[in-house]
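Why should sequence recovery work at all? Because a backbone constrains its sequence more than one might expect. Tight turns favour small or flexible residues, buried strands favour hydrophobic ones, and helices have their own preferences. The token representation captures these environments compactly. In the example below, the structure is given first.
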């Protein structure tokens, strides 16, 4: 299993080999929102149908797509996702776990 930093490096390299490398930052944000919508659709389909393997596989795919889009945006803005998550984790610990 790779770290978030390793995934960021992999995605950065992968996009240099893709025609999507010229995409605008506003379109990158729209892609993330689109993937979140697809994830929401899969979750809606799972309601009352939690053991449906096809829909669970779809949700897994859409979560992966969403993470890819988030990682892509983090690269655009030079955000260290591990550091970002550590700050979020710290705020959750301070608020709820101390
Ligand atoms: Mg998708």
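From this structural description, the recovered sequence reads:
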């Amino acid at each position: 299993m790779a770290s978030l930093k390793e995934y960021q490096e992999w995605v950065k390299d992968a996009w240099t080999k893709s025609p999507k490398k010229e995409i605008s930052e506003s379109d990158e944000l729209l892609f993330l929102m689109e993937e979140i919508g697809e994830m929401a659709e899969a979750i809606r389909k799972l309601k009352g149908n939690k053991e449906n393997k096809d829909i669970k596989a779809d949700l897994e795919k859409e979560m992966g797509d969403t993470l890819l889009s988030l990682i892509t945006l983090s690269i655009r803005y030079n955000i260290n996702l591990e550091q970002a998550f550590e700050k979020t984790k710290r705020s959750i610990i301070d608020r709820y776990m101390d």
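A few observations help interpret the result. The helical segments are 4-16, 25-46, 53-76, 81-97.
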